[in-house]
Write a structure and sequence with these properties.
The protein is built from seven helices and 13 strands. The protein is of the alpha+beta class. The relative contact order is 0.25.
């Protein structure tokens, strides 16, 4: 498969997924799931297609954006979208994560006192000592403090997801006016990632079969798509850039590194390749702070 890098820059606040936290409160996701990304691009292709009638294809009042070359021909499709239109069913999308960040694995730990201290993945240590370790595995940060498990995205330093809450009133289905007792709130994401309003970026990948990519170019520049919920009221507007990148040998490099450190031919299913790996053996539970610190700082 040939890889294309997808970069989405929010131009407005967004509500991805519309996750219902409470009965009347909906919150955005902090990443773009692959199905949402795929649906947004399909919508953009078909809305600009001269042969696709959105109202005619609607079902039960719901608009449908389903790319079927047998239903409508390529005539009327914008030139830059023709490769996408003709081979859309063969394309594979990944989740678009903030700045392309990875998700912390369950074996990642960081300092409980200072979150600025570097995190470490202890999966190798857990694996190597699995047969002779008794009880819990005691771990300490290089500063001597206790560790805690990390979760969420590994955001670049100084950046995070900014959200704000807006309140709306639902419309009466029959009269189309504000309905009594139908107040709800939306926690939407902001299009910036720090106090200096650095633009937030979502980065994912498009995977194209080699046989298809030899004949087509799937690069897209400076295109606007709308992603998520409530896009008709101004949310979810994003700039889209798609460019080809070299095939990444990252999985192979991770596996080779793991096998070197673990000393066997096993293959890890989850491992964060951007973090140091703690590989020191564990002899027992009763260790001094200096001993635990030394074990933590011996990383691959």
């Amino acid at each position: 498969m040939i890889r294309y890098k997808i970069t989405l820059t929010p131009l407005s606040p967004f509500l991805i997924g519309g996750h219902q936290v409470l009965d009347n409160h909906y919150e955005t996701l902090d990443y773009i799931p692959a199905p949402n990304l795929q649906a947004a691009i399909a919508r953009r292709i078909l809305e600009s297609h001269g042969g696709y009638d959105v109202q005619q294809q609607a079902r039960d009042g719901q608009k449908r954006y389903f790319i079927d070359p047998d239903l409508i021909g390529v005539e009327g499709c914008e030139e830059k979208w023709i490769p996408w239109f003709q081979h859309f069913s063969q394309l594979r999308f990944t989740d678009a994560t903030p700045f392309g960040a990875e998700h912390f694995t369950a074996s990642t730990f960081g300092c409980k006192l200072d979150r600025e201290h570097e995190e470490t993945d202890f999966l190798v240590a857990f694996y190597v000592t699995r047969h002779h370790r008794k009880g819990r595995l005691n771990m300490a940060c290089s500063c001597g403090e206790r560790l805690e498990r990390r979760s969420g995205w590994k955001w670049p330093q100084g950046t995070r997801m900014f959200k704000r809450t807006v309140t709306r009133v639902a419309l009466d289905d029959r009269r189309h006016v504000s309905a009594d007792g139908q107040l709800f709130s939306l926690q939407i994401g902001e299009p910036y990632a720090d106090a200096e309003r650095t633009p937030l970026l979502f980065v994912g990948y498009l995977l194209v079969p080699e046989s298809v990519e030899k004949e087509m170019n799937f690069s897209i520049h400076d295109e606007v798509v709308r992603i998520g919920k409530h896009i008709t009221v101004g949310l979810g507007k994003m700039n889209l850039e798609v460019e080809r990148v070299e095939t990444d040998a990252f999985p192979e490099a991770r596996i080779a590194r793991w096998q070197t450190l673990s000393g066997d031919t096993s293959v890890p299913l989850l491992i964060n390749g951007t973090l140091p790996l703690a590989v020191a053996p564990i002899e027992g539970r009763n260790m001094t702070i200096s001993t635990r610190t030394a074990r933590h700082t011996q990383s691959g």
